[in-house]
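Quick board copy: two proteins, each given as sequence then tokens.
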Amino acid sequence: MSAPSAVTPPFDPGDPLGIDDCLDPEDLAVRDTVRAWAADRVLPHIAEWYERGELPGVRELARELGALGALGMSLEGYGCAGASAVSYGLACLELEAADSGIRSLVSVQGSLAMYAIHRYGSEEQKRRWLPAMATGEIIGCFGLTEPDHGSDPAGMRAHARRDGSDWLLTGRKMWITNGSVAGVAVVWARTDEGVRGFLVPAGTPGFSAPEITHKWSLRASVTSELVLDDVRLPADAVLPEAKGLRGPLSCLSHARYGIVWGAMGAARTCFETALRYAGTREQFGRPIGGFQLTQAKLADMALELHKGILLALHLGRRMDAGRLLAEQVSFGKLNNVREAIEICRTARTVLGANGISLEYPVMRHATNLESVLTYEGTVEMHQLVLGKALTGLDAFR
């Protein structure tokens, strides 16, 4: 006789594929901790922050995120949590379920600024910066994009030249998350030796970071320009192990992985909002969730949401195994952000006119995702990455 089978749990609309069964207890604990923090510290205020176009108390929020172990979460040593890639991804999902700007704060801090120092910095640089960045006492930013060079960083105009044993750094960087509140900027510039990374402390003469305003997306996020006018830096300001574009591009790949998860957080919030709304909003004498067209929308949103989470989990397992390829990250970023935007737009139609109100989170997430869609690689760039990987032919030029 065969052994009796376990009792099959009932269908769970919040986890229709039973993905939670695939997660380790540590992963679930991280997810639940970050979700609880976001519910307490972000959700009660985020609509007001978004409407005002500011992120008040960003330094305090950074310290709280540091206390959670969310900054540089997947890095080892120097006060970092050393968590799995899956745990980090789940944290990104929960943060972006609150707001993309909060997830961006964490991504830029950990996956760009801290990751660049951790992977390419000297031991002295790591000890100087990483412990304080892990606690949130120091915020970092990452300067690669320029006013005229986004998708083509090889054309950057920022440059550094030697002056005795020092470096003189000149240029401008644009759309830099955390820039105005950062204690240190990782800035990439052309040199006679190729592209190099420089650590620029806030307050260095010639360096400023004016905040960018008048945004209709990522409004609850600090976005800045970096201005560098003959900034004098000592020789030990250079990241010694980063030479060429491979350095900054590897950092971007690490950050894009977090976006693969984060986009599904925004999508989940919009789907759950639409599902609840459909159960209570009545038209023609009954809840709109009882109409076939609304159910079709909800079913399609659930399909793409949980397929996206499965894709993120698969990529996380590959990262933890040391087998994740940059092309696979492009696969995830392209699919998940694109599908997340479609979920948000569909959720907006379920809510009707209420969908444009900040009383609900749907339009806020939809407009945020318009930035997520194009930063750290536009749709077209990721399509071309995959196109080259599939055909072996480079169509970038």
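And the next:
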Amino acid sequence: MALQSLSLQLYSVRHALDDDLPGTLARVAEIGYRQVEASHKLYARGPELARAVREHGFGVPTFTSPLVALPGREVPDVEEVFAAARELGATAVIDTYIPEEHWTSRADVATIAAGLNAAAEHGLRVGYHNHWWELERRFDGRTALEVLADDLRPEVVLEIDVYWVAVGGEDVLALLDRLGDRVRFLHLKDGPISRDNTQQLPAGRGKLPIDEIIATTPQVEAGAVEFDEYAGDIFEGIAASFDYLRPRTAA
């Protein structure tokens, strides 16, 4: 079984993007990536992102932005977010980071689910991306992430960061099996299973069972390479992940 498609989360090269967005996306294309996961924050800087996406023919299966308004959390105009996603050709808008302090109770989870469900009324699919705390936090013996999934509308999807699942103490394959078809996108990073972001490694060089993860998620539409940090040259890191995952990708 192979990934349906391979993408790069542009957060991985954010520092290079700050210095030279067109040049960075040119390097990403030279490595071989044909899809990227872009963000509203990056899009809102100006027309360079959309221009570079068109120039290099990138697909943008997923577009990220805060969607759920919570105390102390700024959310951009949701209509503008979805308009930007449509311009880039995205099929889903993913809320990628709801901080740990908003996951303290079952009521917190219900509030997050309600926000995601409301965002799903804007015409594109909506999704949520996990970190480790949604796995560490448990309610009635179940992870907060699974409790969230129960509260979501059927069309709201999950983008599972498999590394953070492992850091959160869960068996990655077992969790993916329990979540089933709700999982439509993956974030693929590797490493020693540590919260120290500088220890993250290219896919295939750490402790995650990448091949088994791919085999157990045939419904996944895109796997996105991501590094929160990288101790080496980030372009070498994303190239190493590409070289490992491309033979495991159908298109």
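Board note added afterward: Residues 6-248 form a domain with the TIM Barrel fold (CATH 3.20.20.150).
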